[in-house]
Amino acid sequence: MKESYKETIRTWKGMYVNAFERTINALPEVEGVLVAYNTNIDAIKYLNGEELEMAVENAGKEEIFGLVDNPPERITSLKDLFAGILRSIKYGKAAEWFVESGEVRGYLREWGWDELRIGGQAGIMANLLGGVYRIPTIVHVPQNPPLQANLFVDGPIYFPIFENGEFKLVHPKMATEEGNELIHYIYEFPRGFKVFDIEAPRENRFIANADDYNARVYMRREFREHFKRIAERVDLAIISGLQVLKEHYLDGTTYRDILQRVEAQLNVLNRLNIESHFEFAYTPNEKVREALINMLNKFTSVGLNEVELASLMRIIGDDTLAEEVLHGDVFASIDAMHLLMDETGIKRIHFHTYGYYMALTQYHGEEVRDALLFAALAAAGKAMHGDLQNLNQVRDALSIPTNERAFPMVESLEREFNMERGIIDMTDRQLAFIPTKIVSSPKSTVGIGDTISSSAFVGEFALRR
Ligand code: 8BR
Ligand code: GLC
Question: Which residues pair with 167 in a beta bridge?
Fold first, then answer.
């Protein structure tokens, strides 16, 4: 090990400990967070090689293999389903396809799961913010059947209801209804997972999405009609779930109609001076993606990973920059973040990737970096346990070594931009950079991105108070 690395390890260790203590002490400062719109049930199955091989053989191996590199991107038959799963394994890539066939939906339910968890960015963040950080959190839940409501953990997690004109906030478990069960079937596999001659280059998951509500960003009546009353109860909002929008729906609705309703709600948030964060999940449709970029000026903050940042560069930058971002070039990623800020005026961009995070802000302060450090601990805790249940699991992540592979980047940023303790002063902007903690055999990967973004956004706000 390089001698200078020992010093770097000590420096970051100290910063991690300090950031953790400061952030958990500040969290009670947050009075309320709103998370909307996508909540669903995640039915997680940890794949078994032999079982999967048998199922593939039964469904028609040859045709399925033909589809692996010719992906239908949606599921109308069992062949599509298995092609999707094998493709994710082969490339170690996350993917999410809609299940259009009722017969396949029946099969998926029969095939079963190992574990049910609350899903959707909004649902996951509600369990984290309300259940683990104990911050009062109002969550949008498109459907509230008992199966899903019981996946919300105890704590200050609220579902708004109006009874005889009276506004009430109750835990989702206290207001269940005969709703549809919106199930996303998640097939997780570890690095090195083998099936036939395919071997997973890294851990990841394939999602078969059997949910017609979140697919069109269904909004509950309470949110459509009483949004202002809901918004008045919080000081922060996190919006997600717009990535699934399609250009047209069968009934003639378009993504524009849906986004207009979302924009009206953002206007309310802005009038009330509520800071808002948009979680930018991968959006396959280019028109929708472009419309989302155009909406970013209504938000205070945006969170994205390398695939998402690259996909935005294909629209507002160029393909070369997009490729460089995808290949993990840290300088290109910084250029891309600046470009996104120039184009949209958004005040905060939080980029996360395997091994390091960065935040570009139109304001200065060490709390931006400290919130990223706190988020990295939460992410590592989540990777270790699959489901985060308490702050001790976040604290335990302090013992995981800081990712040394990011140290050469720290050195280049110190050389090029005079970075000091993870902070670069760019006059009118600030860039914060942190090496993260990587868990070597994560229990599962779904929801880590949501954990990172919400912890950093809410943590920073708490520290600034
Ligand atoms: P996305 O799903 O938005 O890409 O977020 C996933 C993030 O989880 C990655 O950017 C990475 O930072 C983090 N992550 C993954 Br994937 N595996 C991890 C691990 N084993 N330990 C810590 N963080 C991890
Ligand atoms: C997507 C999936 C959902 C999952 C979430 C995790 O929204 O549809 O099932 O829980 O991503 O980030």
Answer: 162
Q: Is the pLDDT of residue 3 over 70?
A: no
CATH superfamily of domain region 3-40+119-180+213-464 = Ribokinase (3.40.1190.20)
369, 424 contact by CB (below 8 A): no
Cα–Cα distance list, 366 to 115, 132, 141, 186 (Å): 39, 24, 35, 38
Q: What is the pLDDT of residue 5?
A: 84
SS3 at position 241: coil
CATH of domain 42-117+181-210: 3.30.1110.20
37 preceded by a cis bond (ω within 30 of 0):
yes
Q: Which residues are catalytic?
A: 450
pTM: 0.96
Ligand 2 near 139 CB (within 6 A): no
Cα–Cα distance, 125 to 304 (Å, whole number): 15
Question: Residue 438: what residue type?
Answer: I
> Is the CB of 209 inside a 6 Å radius of any atom of ligand 2?
yes
- Nearest-angstrom CA–CA distance, 448 and 244: 19
What are 265-318's pLDDT values in tens digits? 999 999 999 999 999 999 989 999 999 999 999 999 999 999 999 999 999 989
Give the distance (Å) from ligand 2 centre to CA of residue 120: 4
Residue nearest to atom 11 of ligand 2 (CA): 120
Distance CA 322, CA 313 (A): 5
Pairing mode of beta strands 183-189, 166-170: unpaired
Distance CA 46, CA 176 (A): 29
Segments of the chain assigned to CATH 3.30.1110.20:
42-117+181-210
Question: Who contacts 418 (Cβ-Cβ below 8 Å, separation ≥6)?
Answer: 424, 425
pLDDT, tens digit (0-9, with 9 covering 90-100), for 142-173: 999 999 999 999 999 999 998 888 889 999 99
For residue 1, the model assigns a pLDDT of 59
